Amino acid sequence: xxxxxxxxxxxxxxxxxxxxxxxxxxxxxxxxxxxxxxxxxxxxxxxxxxxxxxxxxxxxxxxxxxxxxxxxxxxxxxxxxxxxxxxxxxxxxxxxxxxxxxxxxxxxxxxxxxxxxxxxxxxxxxxxxxxxxxxxxxxxxxxxxxxxxxxxxxxxxxxxxxxxxxxxxxxxxxxxxxxxxxxxxxxxxxxx
Length: 192
Fold this sequence. Notes:
The protein is mostly helical. The chain has helices at 3-8, 20-41, 77-121, 127-142, 148-182, 186-189; strands spanning 48-56, 59-67.
């Protein structure tokens, strides 16, 4: 698919195109919420229910029994506070991860748009033009129209220009690969 379309979902959350780092941060928040729920359940002490039997001097007493730990309230305050802190930390990390994802997506989309515009300028190969120019410089030297220093300088400039063209094409390819990887493009990663 088009890398611009793939890059469009880089910063979002929820849905099918969610980034793995955002999904992991969301899972951490869910785990922290579950931990907080567990700690809240531990605020009340366990209640024991049973029966008792007692025999003393021929008198038998039996009945139901309820056991509570004293004090009944204000149990597990440390665990509850720690779980709240973990939830707040996980939520902050999720917000930061989403922010980083959105910034990366915007940056990559901007780079990809620039590459797409540059491709129009660099679409044609310079090999034949460079070869023609090098032959022209050689002919100018051979015919005595250019001295050795000028001919070598012109050849160096032609080769530097061609090298610049290849470097620009390489940069464009790297940007497209970065966008595809960031979008977790299944075709690029070899999975379907």
